[in-house]
Every structure is written in C-alpha cells, then in structure tokens.
C-alpha cells in the first residue's frame, strides 16, 4: 500500500474515533444531568480507577498501556468540562511540580488556580472556591512535607485520591555555574539535592522560597542567581538548564494527595489516612499501632508532627491499607479511639495511582 493509501486509512479511522468519542461524551452529559438531579460529586476517583483498569485489561496492543491511560485521562478531563468544569488549586506559580502533577492527573479541560502556599490550597477547598486541591505530602528521599501535614490538623477537607510522580530537579540559571551566588528553591527540594549542592558549591547561599516555580521566577529577575526546579519552569521563565537531574537519589518520587469535600467509595484496593494524638505517656503510640496489627491492617506510612499546643505532644499521621468502611477497619478505628486523645479519618481512597 502507498503512503497516501495508508494515510487515507488513518483519516477514515480518525473520523470514526471522533464520532465514537462524541458518542461517549453524550452519555457523559447524561451522567452530569443525573448527578445534578440526584447529587454526587463530579470527580469520581473510584470510577476513574475502574475505567483505567478496564482499558488496560482490554488493551491487546500494539499501543502501550501508558499511552491509552494518558488518552483516557484527557478524555475524563473533557468529561469534567461537560458535567461541570472543575476548579483545582495547586501550589503555584505555573511550572511547579504540583502543576505538572495536576495537569497529568486532571488534563487540559479543567480550571487551575495557582496559589502562593500550601495552606491556601486547603482554605480554597474548604471554602468551596476550588472543587479540589493537589498537595505534596511525601517524597521518597526527603520524607514528609511538614506544611501539608500541619494543614490537615485544623482543616475540614478530605483526601479523595493519591498520585505518585517521578521528580527530576535541574539547576536553572542565566549565568555560568561558577558565577552562581544564590540558589533559590523550596526547602524540601534542597533536601533532595543536598549531596549535589555540597559537592558543587562552596560559596553560593541557598535561599528557601515557597515553591520551585517561584524560585525560577526570582532567578530570572536577579543576575548571578539560580533556581532548582523543573524543565517546565525553565521554559516558562526563560532560564537555561545548567545542570540536569541533580537529585541525590535517582528514583525520586513525590506522593501528592487530592483533597476535596467528598468521600470516595471503596474499590477493593484502597488506603486510609488517619490523624490522631495521644497523651504524653509511655507506650501511648504503641497501644494505638497494636490495634491495627491485632485487626490485621497493614500500615503503609507513619509521620509525626509537634502538636504546637503543648511541648513534646505530637500529632501522628498513619496510613493503613484498606477502606474505612470495611468491618475490619470500623472495629480497628473504634478500638484505636480508646487510646487516643483525638482521632480523625482524613479519607479512604484508591491506592497508588502512578502518573507518567
Ligand atoms: O462515571 C462518572 O461518574 C463520570 O462522571 C464519568 C467519568 C468518565 O468520563 O468515564 C468522568 C469523570 C469521573 O471522574 C469518572 C468517570
């Protein structure tokens, strides 16, 4: 067959695909009307998981799963647009890692709201100014993100989903490496590049700012300064990539949480996040953790933060594998409460959604 014939075939298939996509979209419009009438959140993470799994199972190739997943994520972004355009708050400005994660997860057909700090994301969602927010919670090399953990303590938002994204850091500047006098970034980013920074610079000062994208904006404005950030930030703010992939650990992954005011139903493959505090007495934390062991619930993560109310009193953040609605989880939560000053479930959500 000639190239022209092959391209004619592609054109015919494309026309059929457009028709099929719009046939799906017309059903989505009906789903939107149903939700309007009967209630129910526009974003349905449990259904999204089921759709993406079904697509992978149906895929016999030659397209890789990741291509189809990206297409379907974009299609579901279009679904939001048709049902009710969603507004999603992220740690801005544009070009931050949170922005990349948000766009990979929610696509091109939603509205994004860039805010200046993580607490504002919680406030925007809490007040209903944004439907959802995306917040970094943990990095594979640097550990917990304190600002996000602390914001959960006095917020009424829930966790409705989690996503993991590989993070590559770059030194961005408009001068030579040896001329850099100041380096801007987020404290957590410095922590992820600590070895590289100490091996590379003797004189340059590191200056902490609210986000890596804000750092890039600042480095673009002041001579002989650099930022550590994404390649997207370099493009957006007109900086050169002076050194690539400077993270100390090659598999540098950040876990982000999607926060909202909605609950996510079980999928059979879920995680639950808890926040609790215990009295400052010997064995108090162990008593709580033993409850989960005794109920056969596998703990996936534990973090602590000072309560800031009384010295040496802490808030604990624990994730277990399973959904809060299961009988096993209900019993464990009842029992755990007896050992806590206060315990709240931050949310149950589908486990382990990996972004490309
Ligand atoms: O099933 C729904 O609730 C929908 O809104 C449809 C749909 C889809 O396009 O398949 C869109 C968005 C949701 O997050 C999940 C699924």
TrEMBL record:
Alphabetical GO biological process terms: chorismate metabolic process; L-phenylalanine biosynthetic process
UniProt xrefs under InterPro entries: ACT-like_dom_sf, ACT_dom, Chor_mutase/pphenate_deHydtase, Chorismate_II_sf, CM_dom_sf, CM_II_prokaryot, G/b/e-P-prot_chorismate_mutase, Preph_deHydtase
Catalyzed chemical reaction(s): prephenate + H(+) = 3-phenylpyruvate + CO2 + H2O; chorismate = prephenate
Pfam families linked to this entry: ACT, CM_2, PDT
Chain positions of site Essential for prephenate dehydratase activity: 254
Pathway: Metabolic intermediate biosynthesis; prephenate biosynthesis; prephenate from chorismate: step 1/1; Amino-acid biosynthesis; L-phenylalanine biosynthesis; phenylpyruvate from prephenate: step 1/1
One Gene Ontology term, aspect cellular component: cytoplasm
Boundaries of every Chorismate mutase domain copy: 1-87
Signal peptide per UniProt: none
The ACT domain, residue ranges: 273-350
UniProt key word Transmembrane: no
Predominant cellular place of this UniProt entry's protein: cytoplasm
The protein's role, per its UniProt record: Catalyzes the Claisen rearrangement of chorismate to prephenate and the decarboxylation/dehydration of prephenate to phenylpyruvate.
Protein's UniProt name: Bifunctional chorismate mutase/prephenate dehydratase
Gene it is expressed from: pheA
